[in-house]
Amino acid sequence: MRILVTGGAGYIGSHTCVQLLEAGYEIVVADDLSNSSETAIHYIKGITGKEFPFYPVDLKDRERTEQLFELEPIDGVIHFAGYKAVGESVERPLMYYENNLVSTMNVLQAMRKRGIFHFVFSSSATVYGDPEILPIPEEAPLSATNPYGCTKLMNEQMLKDLYQSDNRWNITLLRYFNPIGGHPTGLLADNPNGIPNNLMPYIIRVYENKLDQLHVYGNDYPTPDGTGVRDYIHVIDLADGHVAALDRMKEPGVHIFNLGTGTGYSVLEVVRAFENVNKCRIPYVIDPRRAGDIAMCYADPSKAERELGWKARRSLEEMCKVVLI
Ligand code: WQD
To answer: Is 148 a residue of the active site?
Structure first.
């Protein structure tokens, strides 16, 4: 099966490309490199020893997207491409709605035109908003608390409507919890441009002495130690969830799965695990809560275990281990 991986030079996309190639899939990668680098493409080829076509394409460009499908035989798509910074989405909502929705529509139109109906969508636990039920099942109520989350919710709704209009579609929505960690070679990791929004890349910058201390956003949440609790999952476990979804992608429909470990860890537990496994100190200061943050979020991953035969395997310590190259 030949899979188009959009956003395949990004953090989760690049790790998924490695796992797909190692599982015997052929891939084609499209990425506009707005939040990634072509270096990742070279690393994927270096790690796997395999070749594949790469296209620097802005998927908002309908014509370029059509050209891609004309040039390359494609059997299915994993769609990672999209902007993903919550704070930036609040400041620049139109940029987020245009990019995250138009790119998806262009890909789906190009697929439908050519009778390609296998589509895996990179969704997010952010569609659960502030969860009422913990651990969170796939049936939990959906809501969005920021434009980024709204784009995920709107893409999910568009895909459900698409299947209702044409039952040939075979759609999988994968709702990620908090991906962290990197490839054991140290070549692929979460290395955003500028000051990181997310916890782990920020901790790593402190570890590298590029930032002086971690700012812990609030210690007055109703959690065991007062700091935010999240379901951290190793990015390679997450990537393997995509391979499992493709392997078991049989009947048409809309198939929804949480990709998490089912265990929540607080900010301070992550800091302690990071310090222990890397034998270091991560200085931190307690700041006020970050606007839009929720207290606790962790998955019920039993449906993916049952129906995909997939389960996250790596420990928090493995997720925190820094690989020096
Ligand atoms: C985790 C915890 C913070 C940074 C976001 C998106 C979500 C998904 C993952 C794309 C929280 C605390 C963080 C810092 C801190 N992305 N924190 N200091 O907010 O759970 O989820 O990224 O799909 O959609 O919303 O992840 O890593 O930003 O925060 O104390 O410098 O760490 O308060 O409790 P989050 P995060």
So the answer is: yes
Nearest to 36 by CA among 4, 72, 84: 84
Separation CA 125–CA 296 (nearest Å):
12
* Domains annotated on the chain, with CATH: 2-182+233-260 (3.40.50.720)
Contact yes or no for 159/255 (Cβ under 8 A)? no
One pLDDT digit (tens) per residue for the chain, 325 residues: 999 999 999 999 999 999 999 999 999 999 999 999 999 999 999 999 999 999 999 999 999 999 999 999 999 999 999 999 998 999 999 999 999 999 999 999 999 999 999 999 999 999 999 999 999 999 999 999 899 999 999 999 999 999 999 999 999 999 999 999 999 999 999 988 789 999 999 999 999 999 999 999 999 999 999 999 999 999 999 999 999 999 987 799 999 999 999 999 999 999 999 999 999 999 999 999 998 899 999 999 999 999 999 999 999 999 999 987 7
Q: Kindly report the pTM of this predicted structure.
A: 0.97
Ligand 1 neighbours, Cβ below 6 Å, are 84, 86, 124, 126, 176, 178, 197-199, 202, 215-217, 228, 230, 267, 290, 293
Phi-psi region of 168 (alpha: psi -120 to 50; beta: other; left: phi over 0): alpha
Tokens 């296209």 belong to which residue? 55
CA of 199 to the centre of ligand 1 (A): 6
Task: Check 148, 176, 221, 232 and give the catalytic one.
Answer: 148
